[in-house]
């Protein structure tokens, strides 16, 4: 496999995907066109507008972006594609649409066969085993929480450390992930913004400037450095 | 109906439920025993420990608390109860358990017949039409997102205003609720901590020290004052 699962598409103060530019040139080496999966629709924008946003970055590295919504036969479009990018937004919307249109397993099969895949945020969640560690609001009811399982763990994108100054009694991210571990036996990778997971063949590493926080059942959470294998 | 749906159980620096004491004396007037629904299990604590925590407050106002887990026949226990309290925690766990044990509609029927109900956080979410505006992590997959619909809208507990200083690209609460409104036509009440919804008969008001933020489809969000009818 040849995949990047990124915590976020955009660093604070930065432009869309630009911090990943060198990585994406390598990911998509030899490819001049990819299919974009816009179903997560951040803030409810249209599929076409979201695809145009993706194209605005991919123009810089000379890759043409085709939105999956443009195809009458989406299964065929995924099977014919040379590579993929799934943008962020709402994971419930994304997973519901992929399952209802029978696309989750088609995408999985193609990526497992070696076609390059980039996911950001919600698009990274679907690379995990299931979507049970998303931060998103359950605005729609998907027929299943199962995802592609491109990596043998779950991802928590936009991982955020507790803020000791906050006078608020909502749960911290760490509390939420620990609640997940009371119900599930699965490693969770807390990906801080600016970090990403890189899989090349069977080798899976975490990359980026920040440490990455790992949560496992019956263990204290711990931190690993960029380059560490997962 | 006679219900309180509170944003939180505990104010910053305060003790469990104490800020609601005078309201709860009125809510449960004439009642000396209630059934506690502990299924949301915050941080994975046991049902018995959670029930003991509820009892620690209700001792102050001379009400005995029986945990629903103590009964072999939970449907009968709900039907025989004089009043209810559902504690906070994870809404997905709470809703899954209530649906799987066939309790959601039993509780609804009893509350609609006039028995007093208190919900905090996840326990307030289930008073809304559905759980699609919870903040919680989807750590388990419920058979449905439908809730009791004790009020004709949805609740977002622990409503949190955007923090302009945060260098983080996760969605704000307002963005999430606006995404909900792209997919659903239903009013959402953003309940800041310290606020609660009070229903007496057919009259529904919002109460507490803070303004309350209301979200409706195709409208700018707006604020209402304590005492306003919903």
Automatic annotation (TrEMBL), chains A, B:
InterPro entries: Class_I_gatase-like (IPR029062), Peptidase_S51 (IPR005320). It comes from the Bacteria. It is an enzyme of class 3 (hydrolase). It holds the Pfam family Peptidase_S51. Keywords: Dipeptidase, Hydrolase, Protease, Serine protease. GO terms for molecular function: dipeptidase activity. Belongs to the peptidase S51 family. NCBIfam families: PRK05282.1. This is Dipeptidase PepE. It comes from Chryseobacterium oryctis.
């Amino acid at each position: 496999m040849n995949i990047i699962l990124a915590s976020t598409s955009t660093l604070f103060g930065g432009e869309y995907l630009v911090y990943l530019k060198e990585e994406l040139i390598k990911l998509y080496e030899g490819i001049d066109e990819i299919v974009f999966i816009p179903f997560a629709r951040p803030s409810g924008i249209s599929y076409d507008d979201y695809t145009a946003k993706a194209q605005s970055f991919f123009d810089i590295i000379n890759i043409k972006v085709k939105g999956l919504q443009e195809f009458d036969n989406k299964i065929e479009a995924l099977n014919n594609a040379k590579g993929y990018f799934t943008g962020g937004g709402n994971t419930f919307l994304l997973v519901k649409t992929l399952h209802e249109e029978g696309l989750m397993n088609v995408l999985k099969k193609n990526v497992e066969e070696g076609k390059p895949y980039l996911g950001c945020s919600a698009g990274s969640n679907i690379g995990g085993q299931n979507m049970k560690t998303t931060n998103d609001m359950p605005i729609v009811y998907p027929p299943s929480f199962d995802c592609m399982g491109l990596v043998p763990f779950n991802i928590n994108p936009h991982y955020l450390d507790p803020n000791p100054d906050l006078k608020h009694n909502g749960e911290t991210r760490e509390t939420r992930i620990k609640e997940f571990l009371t119900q599930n036996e699965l490693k969770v990778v807390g990906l801080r913004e600016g970090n990403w997971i890189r899989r090349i063949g069977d080798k899976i590493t975490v990359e980026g400037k920040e440490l990455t926080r790992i949560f496992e059942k019956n263990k204290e959470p711990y931190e690993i450095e960029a380059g560490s294998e997962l």
